[in-house]
Write a structure and sequence with these properties.
Chain lengths: ~270, ~270
């Protein structure tokens, strides 16, 4: 889809390093146009060391309304926010920030909600399920919180890094009554399997879980966008599982980001800092 | 014309205050697309007090290649340049800056060349002519230098502010052998009349020159873009003069800016700071 630009165009940027692969400039700009907004999302390639200066400078642009954040800036951009959702405070990370009426910056983290939204779009429902999450990094943490918020009956978390795995489990235990436990790569007995690791991006990667224990009643979701269908998801589909891929997550997340930037879905009412 | 944007899009910004009226985002973005470049020009609304911070931050964006400058930032942006053309040094102002291979910022001022280019597009040629310029401000100074560079036989400058008029005359005398003198609003005896003041933007404005002394052999040029044809130019056309308007200047200037940003017309070889 093509877009237009003129002197009155409102700006949104996406900050990342690298940046060329990001889909928000095309997707969000098209979504703004579809909504009849004279607005664009443009890419900004900025190194971690330069991020604070970039954000300080960009904030001086009176027609900059929003900032989308991708790797590796999600934690650093949280520090730029003057207010944020409880979810973002819990995660210490944001993937989107919008300018508030008083000139501040209000942050949110939609990665987890995007994953759950992508699942639901493919016929998965976390509520009441026994869930296994592989990966306790930035994406994994966001997904863990979202799965708990969505009402999973139980959440097991596996990560090769036991320190960050245990830290995440401990932090979740402080905010939810949902049982959160140490998981393993074995999906046997779980109803929902979520991969939040990069395992599957390269042909030589090991599989994140023991796919030989997949059963057709399981829902299998994955964050990987390249390849579009990871080997884990391919294996799940082969035996009849419902699945969601990184593209499903992104599609759901883009809708959430659009509503957030246009001011429709989140309020600053519950925000604190 | 519509344009596209994706993660690999190279950015150019135009800084101004106000900004909504500027034409470069549409015009330059379309020109980039026509040249097959994945590049955009987007507007940045920034107040004078915030300009240094904006420029410092924006410079950290690795995919920012160029900065177009409009009022009131042309003098302040000169200070941001690490190198500039002799023309920009003389004027102490730039209307465009591009990033150099070593990460610096190389500035140029095309307002005067744009005016001359607009004249030529409408059949005017400054070389050998007696020229009267009204207005010794930023645009007027740039046009004065360009007229001298283009080979006018003589240049007379009128400005209600005699201090800046005399300062410009003195500075021009230091760089050219062309006779430069104090002018008046009376165009009698001149072959080329250039208005570089805003007189004519509002219906109540006085005319910048005594139009009753226009003769059909005169070329009459004007920098005003709104209205598209100023009352002075209307009067000149009514008696058969060749004329150029602000839109002609902008069209010529856009072509110069495009070549500059794409690296085709200016070299840093002669630059100094």
């Amino acid at each position: 889809m093509t877009v237009t630009v003129d002197g009155a165009t409102r700006l949104h940027i996406i900050v990342g390093d690298p940046i060329a692969q990001v889909k928000s400039p095309t997707g969000m700009s098209a979504a703004f146009a579809t909504r009849g907004r004279n607005a664009l999302c443009v890419p900004i390639h900025v190194a971690p060391k330069d991020l604070p200066g970039l954000l300080a400078g960009a904030s001086l642009a009176q027609n900059l309304d929003g900032i989308i954040v991708t790797v590796p800036h999600k934690f650093a951009c949280y520090a730029h926010c003057t207010s944020a959702t409880e979810r973002a405070h819990f995660l210490g990370a944001v993937n989107i920030i919008r300018r508030t009426a008083d000139g501040g910056w209000f942050g949110e983290m939609f990665d987890g909600l995007g994953f759950v939204g992508g699942m639901r779009a493919k016929g998965g429902e976390p509520k009441g399920k026994r869930a296994l999450l592989v990966g306790a990094g930035g994406a994994g943490s966001a997904i863990a919180l979202a799965l708990v918020e969505a009402g999973v009956r139980e959440l097991a978390i596996h990560d090769a890094d036991s320190v960050r795995r245990d830290a995440l489990i401990k932090r979740l235990a402080a905010v939810t009554a949902t049982p959160v436990s140490i998981g393993s790569p074995d999906p046997a007995g779980f109803e929902l399997i979520a991969n939040a690791t990069p395992a599957g991006m390269r042909p030589t990667d090991p599989l994140p879980v023991r796919i030989e224990h997949f059963t057709p009643d399981m829902f299998v979701g994955c964050v990987i966008t390249a390849p579009a269908v990871s080997p884990m998801v391919e294996a799940a589909r082969a035996i009849g599982c419902k699945t969601s891929v990184g593209g499903d997550m992104y599609a759901a997340e883009q809708q959430l980001m659009l509503e957030f930037l246009l001011g429709g879905s989140s309020t600053e009412a519950g925000a604190r800092r």
